[in-house]
Every structure is written in structure tokens, then in C-alpha cells.
Amino acid sequence: MVRELSHYIDGQRVEGTSGRFSDVFDPCTGKMQARLPLASTEEVRNAIASAEKGQLEWAAMNPQRRGRILLKFVDLVNDHMDELATLLSSEHGKTFPDAKGDIQRGIEVVEFAAGAPHLLKGEFSDSAGTGIDVHSLRQPLGVVAGITPFNFPAMIPLWKSGPALAAGNSFILKPSERDPSVPLRLAELFTEAGLPDGVFNVVNGDKEAVDALLEDSRVQAVGFVGSTPIAQYIYATAAAHGKRAQCFGGAKNHMVIMPDADLDMAADALIGAGFGSAGERCMAISVAVPVGKATGDALVARLTERIAALKVGPSLAADSDFGPVVTAAAKERIEGYIAAGVAAGANLVADGRGLTVEGYDDGFWVGPTLFDNVTKDMSIYKEEIFGPVLSVLRAEDYDEALRLCSEHEFGNGVAIFTRDGDTARDFASRVQVGMVGINVPIPVPIAYYTFGGWKASGFGDLNQHGADAFRFYTKTKTVTTRWPSGIRQGASFVMPAGS
Ligand code: NAD
């Protein structure tokens, strides 16, 4: 008997009633391990009703008390870290330490959000006119929704829900249908921490559930992370229904390696950032841009050597550098790109196709793949592959490297490896990409800064976490006040004089 998963509504697990399901796999064995109910419009509406009710109680609680519940949640997640990371690995396929990192980067945002009273303060102007004061308030929006991708099933739901909840909203999460078990456990831990029923709900589903959230007037805002075509669809549909939206999409992150860089450091960084989590990170490096022929030759030699030593294996095996990709369809898509790169004339230095892992014959394996001499017109350069495939595109000089990073359709993350501060500074200032690393390959900003890509990597004007999240999840009310003179003057209009 295959396990049947549920939704989480009004403080409890709720069985699906739509009769529609999707399969959740174990990517290491290739076997289906659970059935996930896909919510109907009616089920989503029930969740919204519960969220609307819960929000009133939650918003009435003072922000510091809300923060204490969030901190209790963080403690519970830490207590259950190994269990959550194991569950996450078993559905996603990332390694156990990497799964812990996924959870850790999520709870860091909840910790930050627990300090939200400071970010919920408004402004005050004394005597803006004669006898007139002006002040502003930040108030919660009400019910908000998050629609999240498979690749960070703990981190991204927490990036969205932490600030939303701290600001006094209730939250409906529509997680990825590929790895929904961790989001469901997080919902239980929120309840255990003391969150009132209905304040954090999980509806599992596909387009029907998403559209039900987008079209319902009770949902005030939608935060999305996933692929660019869906990000654009959600941004446009949310706007058409009068909602605020912040929608983050795909990526093609470049790393520039200058001739003066520490090449061993750069090669190590590329291996981790290109192949970690099987390349299924929106901040993975998928394009290396060495500047100059000598840099390119030396870098490719170092990468080739390191790739040969990589171990791809079961997610929970201690010696695996990375695990399988998430689904059979993902494996097929990635292998299709590798074939397209070969057909387009790129030099396939390491081929990850056809990898087998003993005892896991049907797992979704793709080994580390390296292409050299990639050119701008190739699909492996233009499109997001989202797998363990690293392309080397050689640049003649710094200006060409800078142009490549800036002109790409996507603008999520970028990195430069150099020992020269002037070059690094110029790069950080001019590159048309939202997040920049200097000798740091995956520059995911810490919780109190904001996370967001540019161009086709992000739609909407406010980023995730940091102060932006509190602007996104609150609405501003501005109050102008004048008080008529009253008791202070007393009944007499005559200046009392001594007798
Ligand atoms: P996806 O776009 O397939 O799915 C994301 C979410 O959208 C899921 O909840 C899914 O159920 C829902 N969805 C899918 N099709 C839909 C449709 N037609 N209508 C409505 N909803 C739909 O993305 P994914 O494969 O889960 O995640 C990988 C993608 O996410 C990559 O492109 C990656 O770069 C991107 N990503 C971006 C960031 C970022 O911050 N920019 C972070 C993580 C992942």
C-alpha cells in the first residue's frame, strides 16, 4: 500500500476529496512512494475561509508575542532537524547535509522575522502643519499565498511564510507536488509551536489549486518561486485579479574567472556550485567564463580532474557528493540538452549520461557533465538546464565577460573570481544581475538582506526576505491628525493676572 498524503487546513491534516492525485517518487530508487491529493477549487476555498478566520486572531496578537511563537517553531524545527532532512532527501534526492542546509537557510529567515516589530513600525512627523501631525501604520494584508518550487521544499516556503506571519497575515502554501512532505511537517510544527488554527495552511495541488488562489478575492498577495514561464503567468494573473505579486523565475548564473584568480579556489567553487544538489539550485553556476586562453585551459584541466573524483550516489549515503535528479522527466530533459550541446558542436569533456549506481538501477541519475567551447547561440547556453551540466564559454577579455553576464536573458546570480579589487568593484557595480558574489560562487544573501533576481529571473518590485518582505506583506495607512484646542485652555480666555 502506497502512503496517501493530505492537505493541512485549520490546524490539522485533511484528506483530499477531489479524487485527483499525483505521484511522489523516491528519486534514488525511481519508485513511487506516496500519492498526493490535488486540491479542487472547493478545497482551496475552504482553506481560504479557515485562513480568513485565523488571521483575525493572529493579527490581534501583539507582534512580539507572534515573534515568540515563531521562535518556538524554530526550536521545534531544530529538534526535528534530522527527521526533516531525511524526509526532504527521500523526496528531493539532495544529500542529507544539503537537506539540512535547505532547512537551516529557511529558519534563519523565520528567526529574522521574529524581530519584526522593528520593521512594522510606521513613521511620524510632528507639526507637519500648524497643529497637525502625520503618522503611518503598517498593517497586515490579511490572507496571503505562496506557491513554491521543488528544489528548496523547506527554505522557500519559510522565506515566504516567516515574514508574512510575523507581519500578522495568515498564509496558504501551495508547495511543489514533487516533494510535499516537509511542508506538511512544517505545518504541524507551526501548530505545535502555538500558531492558531488556520494561520498556516497547506493545499497540495496543480494548476487548478493555483488558479483558485489567484482568482479568489480574499487572497491579497501571492509570492511565487519557480520557472520563468509560470512566474510570468502568475504575475500577470495575480495582477489581473488586483493582487500584489512577487514572482521569481529561472536562472543561468555565470562565474567569471579572471587570469589573476586563485584557480584552485575557483575550480573547487565551480564544482560545488555547478554540481551540488545535482545542479538543481536557482543559484547554481551553470556557465563558467574564464578570461583568456591560458585561464580557460588551466581551469578546464582542473575541472576535469575534480569531476573524475566526484561520487554520485544515494542521497543518504555519507560519501555521495550529490544525488539523483528529481524525476524521470527531469533526467530526460537534462540528457536532451546534453545531446543538443553535442549536436551544436560544443566539446563534451565529461558526459553524465548513462550513469548507473549499484543497487539503484532505476534511480534518476545524471552524472557531472562538462562542456567546453560553448558559444552564445547554443541552447545549452541560452536556456536553463537545471541539472549537473556546466558550460565553459571562453571570453577574450574582461569586457566581453561582463557583457555576457549582463546580456543574458536571466539575471539571478553571478560571481567573479579575481584578486583585483578594482576589477571586482567595477564588476559588482556594472553587471546587470541581482545578486553578485566576489570570490563567492553562490551569493545567496543572508536573511536580513533581500533575495531577488533581475530580468527574466524576477517579476515584481520587492525582493524576498529582509526589509522588502515586510513592505510586501503589509499595507501602509497614513493618518493626518489635528486636535481642536480643548481642556488645556480651560474655560477662561483671559490671561489670569495677579491681583
Ligand atoms: P515550476 O515552475 O514547475 O513549479 C513551481 C510551482 O508552480 C509549483 O508549486 C508548481 O506546482 C506550480 N505550477 C507548475 N505549473 C503550473 C501551472 N501551469 N500553473 C500554475 N502553477 C503551476 O518549477 P519547479 O520545477 O518546481 O522549480 C524549478 C524552477 O524554479 C527553476 O526554473 C528554478 O530556477 C526556479 N527557482 C527559482 C528561484 C529564484 O529565487 N529565482 C529559486 C528556486 C527555484
From TrEMBL:
Keywords for this protein? NAD, Oxidoreductase
Alphabetical list of PROSITE patterns matching this protein: ALDEHYDE_DEHYDR_CYS
EC number(s) recorded for this UniProt protein: 1.2.1.27
Q: What SUPFAM superfamilies does the entry give?
A: ALDH-like
GO MF annotation: an example: methylmalonate-semialdehyde dehydrogenase (acylating, NAD) activity
Q: What is this protein called?
A: methylmalonate-semialdehyde dehydrogenase (CoA acylating)
| Domain Aldehyde dehydrogenase, residue spans | 17-479
A matching Pfam family: Aldedh
Q: What class of enzyme is it?
A: oxidoreductase
